[in-house]
What we know:
This protein is of the alpha+beta class and 549 residues long.
Amino acid sequence: MSDENRIRLIASQPIRGRILDTNGYVLADSKVKYSLIIKPQSVNKSNWEKHKLSISDLLNIDSNEIQKNYFEGLKNQKLSVTILDDLNEDQLIKFKENEDNLFSFEIATRLIRNYPYKSLAAHVIGYTQPITESEYKFLSNKGYKLNDLIGRTGIEYAYEDFIRGEWGGEMVEVNSLNKFQRSLGIKPSKQGEDIKLTIDINLQLVAEEVLKDKKAGAIVVMDPRDGAIRAMASKPTFDLNFFSKDFKPEKEYNKLFNSTEKPLFNRALNAYDPGSVWKIVTALAGLESGKFPSDTVLDTKPCITYGSQCFREHNDLGFGVIGYEDALRVSSNTFFYQVGYGVGVDQIHDLAKKLGFNSLSGIEIFEQENIGLVASSEWAKLGRGWGEPGKTPWVAEDIASMSIGQFVVQVSPIQIARAYAAIANGGYLVTPHLSKKEGKLSIDKKPTKIDIDPKNIRLVKNGLRKVVESGTGVAINFGVSNLPPVSGKTGTAEDGEGGLDHAWFVCYTPSEKSELLVVAFAQNTPGGGSVHALPMARQILKAWNENNL
């Protein structure tokens, strides 16, 4: 080979693997983007004016803009300059028909990420972005190219190693004038693997729809038997295709990244005050402690004083002398104040940990997850996360708040789903997951038996059935026919950060041998869980039931 000859590598971009729902519907794929380019150094100047006007007329582009780009490319010695990005089909056909007379112009192709359903399951799917120069320094060793796409959030991030594929290319020999001499070999690019999710697009569409009239909130739909996520939605949301744009308008960028509404924030995995949906934890703590056995009955009152405050019953009257099942059915506050105060903070904290609270859920998109807070006496002693150790002791008011899921308890919808799944399936803690893909991120955690007496789980389960039969959740059956028996719990929570009340509803169906569990959460939506969250869950149950008839 002569010294003048050189070797060049023409890189071949891999096609990123698709993301599919459980039925095979495409949620993310790649599409070819066509751009009109010129190579300023190789333009024939004698024909330039003619070709410039021809392409301007043909594709309806401002000739001054073409000239400006051409001069800028010459000045900066660019090898290629984009004249028109993202040609439409009509423009592409016109160019191809006249290609022989347009020597100065070329069509460049590249692959971009495409999301056919735009904002559907945006927080689950996640998005890609080009790698930065600083990232390239260490990612180049893994086969990444400068400006190569990499998954930033969601499934795109969690399964990056499977989805991305491998670059290929052709090695060619050129002479000293950079003219092609011969091909020295081709290594085809390797397409990335497809990832099939547990998400059901039919349920996902309903989950997104029921959140539309809410300011903010989340829906989690899960199989309580194994933790497979059937739908996960968070409001506000965003169009994933924004991240595939070369030019991102400032207004759109600010709406995503600088908005007080935080549309990129996955509320299904963020922690909030749970209110009364937390009462199952206090109930189990009372039962497991032995201090409040299954036959316990307590006198509920208009309010009970703890410390310097009288903590009220939500109906301001009380419900008389009742036991666990009825306390869940009517969602009595004063019943659970007494149980919580009787067992103490650490018994509730330890029971909560058994149900998966105060820890990551195990879901693949953990980069979006907040473990929340379940208070303990040790936490208070250490300064509550903001004060000086020893200066913020546990006080009587704390236990009353904790007993009904307020202020010193913050949990996420996904954690609530796990805890209720353990009641629905008879005492097994499941790992929520979005894919059964095998590999380093494979979900091989089988449901694990919880150290809680099955009789106590059965008692809580009976109470949750009564909630729907004749209690605060009775409206779940309104306007729905042929629905299997449902069990559930309503919740209305004061916002510990000072905002309006949150609305919660959790349910599972059938009540025995449950197949579907729904957590509906409406953030800062006052009026009660039965008014705002329950109707969202009802629509999802209705859609699921119709698909399974």
